[in-house]
Amino acid sequence: MDHRLLEIVACPVCKGKLHFDKDNNELICKFDRLAYPIHDGIPVLLEPEARTLSADEVM
Question: Known Pfam families for this protein (predicted)?
Fold first, then answer.
């Protein structure tokens, strides 16, 4: 994930900061507990495409 891109993308739901999860290749919104997938280096920032994080994953 390009560091510069990570600085400008935001959660489409709350407009908050997203964190890159290198292990799962996802962008994480801790506030909304959503994980957005990254396909071929392109973040898919669509709420229907996001998966809900469990309480253990948010920490």
Answer: Trm112p
